[in-house]
Known about the structure:
Layout: H1 17-23, E1 33-40, E2 46-48, E3 56-59, H2 60-72, E4 77-82, H3 102-113, E5 118-123, H4 145-162, E6 166-169, H5 176-186, E7 193-200, H6 207-213, H7 234-246, E8 250-254, H8 260-269, E9 274-278, H9 280-291, H10 297-311, E10 315-318, H11 321-329
Parallel strand pairs: 1-3, 1-4, 1-10, 4-5, 5-6, 6-7, 7-8, 8-9, 9-10
Antiparallel strand pairs: 2-3
Helix pairs in contact: 2-3, 4-5
Amino acid sequence: MNAAFPALRLRRGRSAPWIRSLLAEHRLSPSDFILPLFICDGVGCEEPITSLPGVSRWTVDRIGARAREAHELGIPCVALFPNTPGHLRSERAEEALNPDNLICRAVKAVKDACPDIGVLTDVALDPYTAHGHDGLIDERGCVLNDETTVILVQQALVQAEAGADIVAPSDMMDGRVGAIRGGLEAAGKCDTAIMAYAAKYASSFYGPFRDAVGSGGRLKGDKRGYQMDPANAAEALREVALDIAEGADMVMVKPGLPYLDILKAIHDRFDVPTFAYQVSGEYAMIEHSAAAGAADRDALILETLLAFKRAGATGILTYHAVDAARLIAG
């Protein structure tokens, strides 16, 4: 039983920086972060992304330097996303299975430049389809679950063969985690981990990301038929339970800040590493708020990232990873 006021004054624990540090319940470390990086075609290029101020696409020959920078700051992993040239996008996403595609070349470039950093790759077809959906579609425009899953397994194997340490299915097809786990095991890729986008919502916060990978203007319809309804919470727990049962090593909640309740519920329910993706729209809100003078940028970055840790995140995918690591280092 706690003492009562005035014997107990909680302000004593807030009276100076040293005691606030001593009593802090949660802490941020660069090892909490995964840095997303975007890949573009060409040589020697950096392409700034207008809707993601401060974030660029990089050609394969320059991506290794970005990975080394992250590693030197203590960031343990990078996540790679390709902006596939338009002429290589198709109805059946054949480029996703090309062992010499942008993502596979980028994985190899990162591993050559920085062998000790982890590499996570996205398993989904939207960077490769002409229609912008995460899977194959029929004549009505409906995404085909089982037919897509067959291709996702092949895509994961291509990425694992290129050197990906973690494959992360973001497509939200039913049963794809089990199929990918089975495919990896059969191919002898038993050490390749799966981070399942388990609770991925049909969110309005993805716009800048779709600009970054070149799929936004191509999307026909929307993704509400396979991504989760923002109204649902219990369904997220069912999704996570299924993915764990199918062999996911880690799970993810996406987006992040609007779904802290989901992150907390997963953390409390399941004994599994759980990640949050601070998505492009969240990043852009911080950048635009700071640019407008509404708040201090550095304080916003650290406060939002700490919120993920407080809710139970094992780690966070964030475009602010490099800035946050530098701020933590002082």
